[in-house]
Design brief:
CATH topology: Thiol Ester Dehydrase, Chain A
Shape: globular
Oligomer: single chain
Number of helices: 2
Strand content: 25-35%
CATH class: Alpha Beta
CATH superfamily: Hotdog Thioesterase
Number of domains: 1
Helix content: 10-25%
Strand order of the largest sheet: 1-3-4-5-2
């Protein structure tokens, strides 16, 4: 099992607010919400940097795989900071490492991986990541030690 990452390990941060509906009957954030936060943080960044056009783009990203490890409870109301970086950049797929932090905390309450596959919007077959896209994505790619 990989060592737990810290705030300093991530390249990009996005602020996210938990919602009343995120809490489950046990008073903490339901497990599925962690994956929704991963999805929201990453897709928000992709939109900002022009790698995703959900209305008119010919290519979109589908989720191929996700994982999550839980270390501490999250709940409503809390401001969450999602940190992420790329750990792998393939021909048509990419894998992000993500940490969910309570605002200001150094250690994540949860961390996971999130693999995207770029596909043709209509045909749903994989499409190569272009050189222009790679230039942007490489800015957050973890360099091998």
């Amino acid at each position: 099992m990989a060592a737990r990452r810290t705030r300093a390990d991530y390249a990009i941060f996005r602020s996210l607010q938990t919602r009343w509906a995120d809490n489950d009957i046990f008073g903490h954030m339901n497990n599925v919400v962690h994956y929704q936060l991963f999805d929201t943080a990453i897709n928000g960044w992709l939109l900002e940097v022009g790698l995703l056009d959900i209305d008119h783009g010919s290519n979109v990203f589908f989720v191929g795989e996700t994982t999550c490890r839980y270390f501490a409870q999250l709940r409503y109301p809390q401001e969450i900071e999602a940190g992420f970086r790329l750990s792998r950049l393939g021909r048509s797929s990419l894998t992000y490492e993500i940490g969910l932090f309570v605002k200001g905390e150094e250690m994540p309450a949860a961390e996971g991986e999130f693999t995207h596959i770029q596909v043709d919007r209509t045909a749903h077959h994989s499409v190569a990541i272009s050189d222009d896209q790679r230039t942007i994505l490489e800015q957050i790619l973890v360099k091998p030690a």
